[in-house]
Amino acid sequence: MPNSAFEPGDDICPPWWPRIIWDLHFGGSGGTKPPSPVNYPPAINDIMSSLAIHTFSYYMLDQKTAQNIRTQTEQKIAQTAAKLSQLHDQAAKNK
């Protein structure tokens, strides 16, 4: 259900979310809006934040530490992705 505090056209998509995923979750300008589990689904937020961390690690001076961060982040993304439906269901029940 859309948040009535925002006017149509307000751009509240966080910068770390790819626009296509935001539009698919919350209905963009392209047709039918699928059911959305919650605003800013925590599981997707977790994955998007992890992708940002992974990418930023390439800018670190200590690339040995950076590789450790990337390895851990990749494992975390895979674990979260494997439980997406379960995590969305939990988030919907807790809202």
Protein described:
This protein has helices at 19-26, 42-56, 63-82, 84-94. It is an all-alpha fold. It has a domain at 39-94. Helix 2 (42-56) runs antiparallel to helix 3 (63-82).
Write the layout of secondary structure elements.
Layout: H1 19-26, H2 42-56, H3 63-82, H4 84-94
Helix pairs in contact: 2-3
Highlighted features:
single chain; 95 residues; mainly alpha; 57% helix
Shape: flat
Topology as a string of helices (H) and strands (E) = HHHH
**Poorly predicted tracts of residues:** 33-38
Which value, in Å, is the CA radius of gyration? 16 Å
Largest sheet: none
Helix content: 55-70%
Strand fraction equals under 5%
Q: Average the pLDDT over all residues and give the rounded result.
A: 77
How many DSSP helices?
A: 4
Number of extended strands? 0
Structural class based on helices, strands and sheet pairing: mainly alpha
Distance between the termini: 12 Å
Structure, briefly:
The chain has helices spanning 19-26, 42-56, 63-82, 84-94.
